[in-house]
Specification:
The complex is a heterodimer of chains A (about 425) and B (about 200).
Chain A lengths: L1 H25 L4 E12 L2 E4 L3 E5 L4 E4 L7 H5 L9 E11 L2 E11 L4 E2 L8 E2 L4 E2 L20 H6 L9 H13 L2 H4 L1 E3 L1 E12 L2 E10 L6 E7 L5 E8 L6 E2 L8 H20 L3 H19 L6 H4 L1 E9 L6 E10 L4 H4 L4 E10 L7 H5 L4 H4 L3 E2 L2 E2 L11 H28 L2
Antiparallel strand pairs in A: 1-2, 1-3, 1-18, 3-4, 5-6, 6-11, 7-8, 9-11, 10-13, 11-12, 13-14, 15-16, 16-17, 17-18
Chain B lengths: L2 H28 L3 H4 L6 E2 L9 E4 L4 E8 L6 E2 L8 E4 L11 E6 L1 E2 L17 E6 L2 E14 H6 L1 H5 L7 E10 L4 E15 L1 H4 L1
The chains are: A alpha+beta (about 425), B alpha+beta (about 200).
Chain lengths: ~425, ~200
């Protein structure tokens, strides 16, 4: 008898433990979100503000990397692309009525911009103009030019030439030249008050938006300017403050293609003239071939320019699953054609990057355990007032009546006195 | 613990169960069954279908007040309508005319006067309470008037508010026990349904 009870107790305890542990072991996030203010990669070498992530499996929100990157300067150091500004990135993951929900917001504002609490609205208030500029981008450390790609024709011929030993010098010179080419001097600028993306997700759905507040005084559009060597500048596009999902900034790019090609030739020749002078006439041929080949390599890449040189997408949205979303307020890729050479765009800049979802529901056992039952049945009836609404306690009907009667008595006494006074003075 | 002790205990339990069965059997013979209690009262007929209450009439207390649906708060508090002259019907409770459950109405008591249920505690057994609905006026007969402390009411919450009763009854609740600062108790009136007055009887 006793041994049977012990056995039953052990089995019961095991069963209870299993029931208690199983949900914890099976607990998967029912809501999740992530936010990153800025990501900048030059030739595939990325740096950014880190990513704030939030997850919730029904037992509470868990967040990572909270408080990273208060400013752009702090996050990106001496980057040449973005100057001082305020970065915001926050994500939240919650559960309401057993359903997971998440939200995220991230972006940049100019100096004096401020970060506001994440919610359904924006997370940044605009400050001074936030200038996006690639004008001084230093390409000297990139590997855009590699012997195996643009210089292939040259490397295959140089060993047969007497100047083979100068290969290293020339290659270095070309790299230096590239560093000073129009590619390095292309300027892209736009003055933003704030540039941010946000998203929300709940079971079965996920939405995202991007907002590009401007400082130009025009409430509807923000101009994006491309500047070329010599001070030429072209307004590429006037982008809407609230761009539609996956808006491409392409307007006018094809008009500057030839300008860039011409500038490239000039820059290459000027740069090589000095370095290659000691090599006399042999170098001229190499130089011509080099420039021709280099431009030939680049030129197809510049046609069409918007696809190969500068690719900007605003409010870039992707849905990894139907109930999740990723939003980039601005996704900029400079020279995507460099993909073949360096494995990535020369420059990839992403501002305001958020992801929300997918979302699920807390296991039904937890939902059943929600404290709904106690509220279903009243346990108290609060049906008493001290006095009628608008009337103070202690000034009930009795006291009110007394005041009225007193006032009436005073009025009557006054009237009687007045009548008596009149009679006495007749 | 040896087996003789167990045998003694089991015998005690069995005896108790037998006594309990006997008590229940006697009670079943003596007390009226729910079916008997729910039988139509002469002069009254069952309501065609349950309907939402719209007006409370208590002739003995000169109460004539509109009824508005109310809901329990997340804190499990049942608050009457804000206007102390209105009566609240807990909309999760039974509709007048239902054969089961409890129809719960509550109204304010105002210490300085003017509350719709200021004098609810004065109601006496047998006095009538009428609840007007779009489908007829249900008449109830007062069966019990009690005053319970707030804590006692909370303890009795299931018996007062639960909708599992096999027969319907009306429950009227207001506050009492004014201390000069707040109310410490509730007056609760229970009434059994008589039905809708037959037209011939009404005429």
């Amino acid at each position: 008898m006793r041994s049977s009870l012990r056995f039953a107790s052990i089995v019961g305890a095991f069963a209870l433990s299993t029931v208690a542990i199983t949900p914890a072991m099976a607990a998967a996030p029912v809501s999740q979100a992530g936010a990153n203010a800025v990501y900048l990669a030059v030739a595939g070498n990325g740096q950014g503000t880190g990513t704030v992530t939030a997850t919730n499996d029904g037992s509470g929100e868990k967040k990572n990397n909270v408080g990273t990157a208060p400013t752009v300067v702090g996050a990106l150091g001496n980057n040449p692309v973005l100057k001082a500004g305020v970065a915001a990135q926050d994500a939240t993951a919650g559960v309401a009525d057993g359903a997971g929900n998440s939200a995220a917001c991230a972006g940049l504002a100019g100096e004096d911009g401020s970060v506001v609490k994440i919610g359904s609205g924006n997370c940044l208030k605009p400050g001074k103009a936030l200038t996006l500029s690639l004008a001084n981008l230093d390409l000297s450390n990139t590997t855009l030019i590699q012997p195996g790609t643009a210089l292939d024709p040259l490397t295959s011929q140089l060993p047969a030439l007497p100047v083979g030993q100068t290969l290293g010098t020339v290659t270095a010179a070309i790299e230096d030249a590239i560093a000073g080419t129009p590619l390095g001097e292309i300027g892209l600028s736009g003055n933003f008050g704030a540039l941010q993306a946000r998203c929300t997700a709940s079971p079965g759905t996920a939405q995202g938006t991007a907002n590009l507040a401007n400082t130009s005084g025009d409430d509807q559009h923000t101009p994006i300017t491309l500047s070329l060597p010599g001070g030429t500048s072209v307004i590429l596009a006037k982008i809407p403050v609230n761009p539609a999902p996956n808006t491409k900034v392409v307007t006018g790019l094809d008009t500057v293609t030839q300008d860039i090609v011409n500038a490239l030739k000039t820059q290459f020749n000027d740069a090589l003239d000095g370095v290659a002078a000691p090599l006399d006439t042999v170098v001229d041929a190499i130089q011509d071939q080099l420039v021709t080949n280099l431009v030939a390599q680049l030129q197809p890449a510049l046609q069409p320019l918007e696809q190969q040189v500068l690719d900007i997408t605003l409010n870039k949205q992707t849905h990894p699953t139907p109930d999740s979303i990723k939003v980039n307020a601005l996704d900029l890729q400079l020279l995507p054609a460099a993909q073949a050479a360096v494995g990535s765009s020369l420059v990839n800049l992403q501002i305001g990057n958020v992801a929300c979802g997918p979302s699920g529901r807390v296991a039904s056992s937890a939902a059943v355990a929600a404290p709904e039952a106690p509220a279903a049945l009243p346990t108290s009836v609060s049906a008493g007032y001290a006095a009628m609404p608008g009337q103070h306690a202690g000034q009930g009907d009795d006291s009110s009546n007394a005041i009225v009667l007193g006032a009436f008595a005073l009025l009557m006494a006054g009237a009687a006195g007045f009548i008596s006074f009149r009679r006495l003075h007749r | 613990m040896n087996e003789s002790v167990w045998d003694a205990r089991i015998a005690t339990w069995m005896s108790s169960l037998l006594v309990l069965c006997g008590v229940l059997a006697v009670a079943g013979l003596v007390l009226p069954s729910p079916a008997v209690e729910a039988a139509p009262t002469p002069g009254y007929q069952a309501m065609a279908a349950p309907a939402k209450p719209v007006r409370l009439v208590v002739p003995a207390l000169k109460i004539r007040a509109p009824i508005l649906p109310i809901e329990v708060t997340p804190q499990a508090v049942l608050d009457p309508p804000r206007n102390p002259r209105d009566v609240g019907w807990w909309q999760r409770s039974a509709r007048p005319g239902a054969t089961k459950g409890q129809t719960v109405l509550t109204g304010h008591t105002v210490h300085t006067g003017g509350g719709v249920m200021d004098r609810l505690g004065k109601l006496r057994k047998g006095q009538l309470v009428r609840v007007v609905t779009p489908k007829g006026t249900m008449t109830y007969s007062t069966t019990r008037v009690v005053t319970w402390s707030k804590a006692e009411l909370a303890r009795r919450a299931v018996s007062i508010f639960a909708q599992t009763r096999p027969t319907n009854r009306l429950v009227l609740i207001t506050c009492s026990g004014w201390t000069g600062k707040d109310y410490t108790s509730n007056v609760v009136v229970f009434a059994k349904p008589l039905g809708v007055r037959e037209k011939t009887a009404a005429a």
